[in-house]
Amino acid sequence: MSSAPSLSDVVRVLDALYPPATAEGWDAVGLVAGDPTAEVRRVLLAVDPVADVVDEVLEWGADLLITHHPLFLRGTHSVAATTFKGSVVHRLVTSGCALHVAHTNADSAPRGVADALADLVGITDRRPLVAKAEDAEIGIGRVGTLTEPVTLGDFARRVAGVLPATAQGVRFAGDPTATLRTAAVVGGSGDSLFDDVRAAEADVYVTSDLRHHPASELRERARFEAAAAGLPDAGGTPFLVDTAHFASEWPWLTYAAEDLAAGLATRGLPAVETRVSDIVTDPWSGVAR
After folding, report:
1. Which strand ranges, in their side-by-side order, compose the sheet holding 135-151?
2. Is the domain defined by 110-243 classed in CATH 3.40.1390.30?
3. Does domain 7-103+249-275 have CATH number 3.40.1390.30?
4. pTM of the shown model
5. pLDDT tens digits for 177-218?
């Protein structure tokens, strides 16, 4: 037996953890570059396939880069190194490193992006926010009960404390003294799911990339309906906690590394060395006040 699994062995484990069929129809997941027969000894995991991460690939000598975000989400007719994305492909290929993407299929999987975020912020007895019909454990986001009641202000500080630091930090909308008992989370951009959060009756919603108009309308509607129902000023749920996109998805990388190792062992395949990149690939570098 070889002392290292082949790339095709590793991809089979990844596809079992994050089935490509569960990705959204618009998504682009799976193996982007690499020889299926090549041996894999070192695997680097990162949120984004950007130049700084490729630098880490080259420095560490990784044989496989697993990223959450796709390099090519739309069709392309060229991977020439004269473009920034083509340069990523060339640098990886010439160094002997493959690239594999697990995006919305990793968002919805058990121990995927949503579960990793839910674990960090303390959500128990949870279920998918939007379940896939064929499997009640698979779906976008998670919603459930907080391990203990907490104020919105303290909860927002908890979220900031467990996620990677970014220039944006963590914003919240609502009365900081309001008590929370339930929460919903979606890693990455989540304002398209406001109706699902309302239907789930979550006290607070943690997600990323919240835009002004959707967030303002959600909060205005919540306050109006709370007042109409005679609830106190602290009512008007769901409250909002807005994180940097990169930060909300980064925690999953540790789960992916652990589950890849377990999947290889279950199949009797040789182990690989894994590393979770701690490079902050959030595009914002500062804030002025």
Report:
1. 123-132, 135-151, 179-189, 204-208, 239-243, 171-173
2. yes
3. yes
4. 0.94
5. 999 999 999 999 999 999 999 999 999 999 999 999 999 999
